[in-house]
Amino acid sequence: MNRISGFQTAVLFAACIAVASPAWSEGKMADPAANRVAVVNGVPIERADFDKEIFLIQKTLLGQGKPLTCSQVTAIRAEVLESMIRREVLYQDSRKAGIKPDESTVTGELAALKRQFPTEAEYKNELGRRNMSEEALRSQLERNSTLQQYVDRQFGSKITVTDAEMVSYYESHLDLFKQPLQARVSHILIQVDPKWDDLRKQEARQKAEQVLKSLRKGQDFAALAREQSDGPTRTSGGDLGYIRTGQLDGQLENVVFRLKAGETSDIIETSYGFHLFKVFDRKPETILAYDVVKEQIRKHLAEEKARQEADQYAKNLREKASVEILLRDEISTAKMP
Questions:
Q1: Long-range CB contacts for residues 292-297, cutoff 8 Å, separation at least 24
Q2: Phi-psi domain of 322 (left: phi exceeds 0; alpha: psi -120 through 50; beta: other)
Q3: Same domain? 234 vs 318
Q4: Is 133 found in the same domain as 27?
Q5: Is residue 67 part of a domain?
Q6: Are 153 and 199 members of one domain?
């Protein structure tokens, strides 16, 4: 884990950012050097890319509510710049080694990113909002693929992780291996449109009450869900599978996770309509056994060791490289790594 992550528990003050970086609205500056933050072996690191990394960190921190001082913000900027320089020297070394991106992996990652958006238009809109073309996104994924292969080949193949290290990690990180309370749940929804008049909404409630009466008489929940539910799980008899705390709206979760196995809820009204739930099974909170997660731990520790080795190697390369930092006045108060 790089040192930047240590700052990811606090908020960047907008005022500090304003002091530390130029206004985005200024556009392209007359002096080309002003659009760069560093030059590494003749290859520029663009200010736009630097600003994007700072912005993403800022966005991550904004919800945490622990403000940083301006000097801490300056230190983050110094660390981001140093991280970009080290990535650049590693990337240059990977190209010298003849490593190329895995195009099938890149294509798969691009497709996975697209699937996060309901439509192609929304995906394109997000790219536009980030001022990024799909070609630029693919180029970044290709670069990441090249670097990952480089780290795996140069360092990952030489890494060993002992059983003692894995056991120690497991015992000191038990919270990571908690399985929260789970419940096997089925759902019936009698949908309501907020635009409906009171009479139509009342008819929907009466339908929900009739379904509940049928359930109280012992009718099969799955059969009623297939016949009466307006929810997306209708075809599967209302089956939601095993769900964990945090997956449902708070109002629904408060009811569902109080139910015992075999119990059916009363009617719960939300803006979507009237809900009925039945819990078929409950699994208490547990901690996954070491044997279940040890290979996952081995992989994590191997990757962490490889990253540390790569970072040290990058630091050595950086010391030998020709590096011109063009942000010295802006980060001069920060201690560089």
A1: 293/170, 293/177, 294/166, 294/170, 297/166, 297/169, 297/170
A2: beta
A3: no
A4: yes
A5: yes
A6: no
Tokens of 186: 């089925």
pLDDT above 50: residue 115: yes
**Residue 172, domain member (yes or no):** no
- How far is Cα 146 from Cα 102, in angstroms, rounded to an integer? 7
| 32-36, 132-136, 294-298, 329-333: range with lowest mean pLDDT | 329-333
Do 201 and 142 share a structural domain?
Answer: no
State the angle between helix axes of 221-228 and 198-216 in degrees (0 to 180), rounded to the nearest 10. 160
What is the number of structural domains in the chain?
Answer: 2
The CA-based angle 95-98-101, given to 5 degrees, is 75
- Quickly tell me which residue has 């693929």 as its tokens: 145
Tell me, yes or no, whether 78 lies in a domain. Answer: yes
Q: In what order do the strands lie in the sheet with 182-191?
A: 239-244, 182-191, 273-283, 268-270
Q: How many helices (H) and strands (E) does the chain have?
A: 12, 9
The boundaries of the domain holding residue 224 are 181-284
Sign of torsion, CA 204 206 209 214? negative
- State how beta strands 323-325 and 36-40 pair: antiparallel
Q: Residue 74's closest CA among 7, 2, 5?
A: 7
Asked if 96 and 120 sit in the same domain, the reply is yes
Q: 132 and 211: one domain?
A: no
φ and ψ of 30, to 5 deg: -65, -40
* pTM recorded for the entire structure: 0.59
Residue 10 shares a structural domain with residue 141: yes
Rounded Cα–Cα distance for residues 229 and 223 (Å): 10
Q: What is the pLDDT of residues 199-253, one digit of tens each?
A: 999 999 999 999 999 999 999 999 999 999 998 899 999 999 999 888 888 889 9
226 and 318 in a single domain? The answer is: no
Distances (CA, A) of 199 to 60, 192, 195, 202, 206: 46, 12, 12, 5, 11
Residue whose entry in the numeric block shows the structure tokens 């630097």: 50
At 235, which CATH number? 3.10.50.40
